[in-house]
User: Fold this.
Amino acid sequence: MKATTRNVKTNLLVCLLVLYAGATRAGDCDLTVSQTQTNFGTFNRGTLSQAANGSQTDVIGKKSTMVTVICPRPERIALYYRAASSGAGEGYQMGDIAHVTLIASDAQADGKSVSLAYHQQGGSAPAGNASTLAILPNIGIAPVSDEPITRLTLQLTSIAAVNDINQHVKEQKTLNGSGTLEVVSE
Assistant:
């Protein structure tokens, strides 16, 4: 492992992620997000997360919210997050110096614990099978279930991080990110 010296000169930065429960295309399914705004507050070099070995990391903060999808009749559904990609494939833009990664976990379909799988639009079968998955740009997540479902609940964890730990910021900045959660049925 390469040891690096990290020097971050930042004034206070305000980080805010807005999750919109967007118009769904899954029949008449309702999508609810328990917390539509995630405010990571202000931070500076001293408030970035500390790694187990005591070195500074690039994590600004973590916040969780619950997502619930309720459909009036059983459907095969997938959940997508539509927002500007961070470009590095690790999440979504949050201002010009940070990004946010969204992690789905603790999924239940019709009251039963289920794994999650990646889902490409266009009818391809879900791939993978895990209890925790990152929601990637242009790739959805779907519950692994033999039957169509009427209710899906999951925890969505937002992890905000600085793109470059050596970023120099001379004045207060507000970092905003927003996107739309979308339910799509097959």
